[in-house]
Specification:
single chain; alpha/beta; seven-stranded mixed sheet; 7 helices; 10 strands; binds adenosine-5'-diphosphate
């Protein structure tokens, strides 16, 4: 059984009474994701990446098609963690309280919070408030919060956007460690090809409006790779050489090229 099975015939946003004001965000979008797989969804702005995550996470039920997470509908699947572009920490709660918010009633929550904050190298900041933290520290707190429910599935929407390269790389490494240690399945949305190749076991490229899969490939590189490894750059270079029209900065071609 796939960890995530997606068959979206159509996802339309209706913005008004006339059909002209509706947007078909996704059409004929199919994806099967294996348990423990780290899948990066790559595509230009507006191609439907966030829409896809919202549907997989069950935040939006309004579409034609079928999605299942661990064999049940997204709404019935409890073990899903999220991380968004902005860390979305509550300013009036300290780091420990923010991380523990979703497990408030669990008896062993304090132990879990401490363990995760120590893994994120944030244990000294458990009583600090978000406004006193750097951007990278806030994202680390958000990462801890995403893992506190011990999710089987992580949905991540460009979580390291607009961070300095070393800060982002540190967070990427932490994320990979968290996922591998817990055998979590991850769906990670990005438009940064290098980031996708560094993180992903698999890359799924989307075309824009309506969004659909135009390229789906495995990253056959050693799993312990580093962002600066020449392998990562070589992989990127070969991909761009093989699919110049598809990946000329943005994915704009609608021609399906299938698996490579
Ligand atoms: P991405 O995450 O790839 O940037 P989105 O999923 O946010 O793309 O958007 C896909 C398309 O759906 C875009 O054309 C966008 O304008 C439209 N869209 C997204 N959310 C809404 C909404 N709530 N109402 C109307 N249109 C939307």
């Amino acid at each position: 059984m796939s960890a995530v099975s997606v068959e979206i015939l159509k996802k339309i946003y209706n913005n008004g009474v006339s059909s002209q004001s509706s947007v078909t965000a996704l059409e004929n979008f199919r994806l099967e994701i294996k348990r423990g797989e780290f899948t990066c969804i790559v595509g230009p702005s507006g191609c439907g990446k966030t829409t896809l995550l919202n549907l997989i996470g069950g935040l939006d039920k309004n579409f034609e098609g079928v999605i299942s997470v661990n064999g049940v509908s997204p709404q019935r699947s409890s073990a899903v963690g999220y991380m968004f572009q902005s860390p979305r920490l509550m300013p009036w709660l300290n780091v420990g309280q923010n991380v523990g918010l979703v497990v408030d009633k669990e008896p062993n929550k304090d132990k879990k919070i401490k363990e995760l904050l120590s893994e994120m190298e944030l244990d000294k900041f458990i009583n600090a408030y978000p406004k006193s933290l750097s951007g990278g520290m806030r994202r680390r707190a958000a990462l801890a919060r995403a893992f506190i429910t011990e999710p089987d599935l992580l949905l991540l929407d460009e979580p390291f956007l607009s961070l300095d390269v070393p800060v982002a790389n540190r967070l990427r490494k932490m994320l990979l460690n968290l996922c591998k240690r817990r055998s979590a399945t991850a769906v990670f949305v990005t438009h940064d090809l290098r980031e996708a190749i560094y993180l992903g076991d698999r890359l799924v490229f989307m075309s824009g409006t309506p969004g659909r899969v135009v390229l789906d490939l495995l990253v056959d590189l050693p799993s312990q790779r580093l962002p600066e490894d020449p392998d990562v750059e070589r992989f990127r270079h070969n991909l761009l050489e093989q699919h110049p029209r598809l990946l000329a900065g943005l994915i704009e071609d609608t021609e399906s090229v299938g698996n490579t």
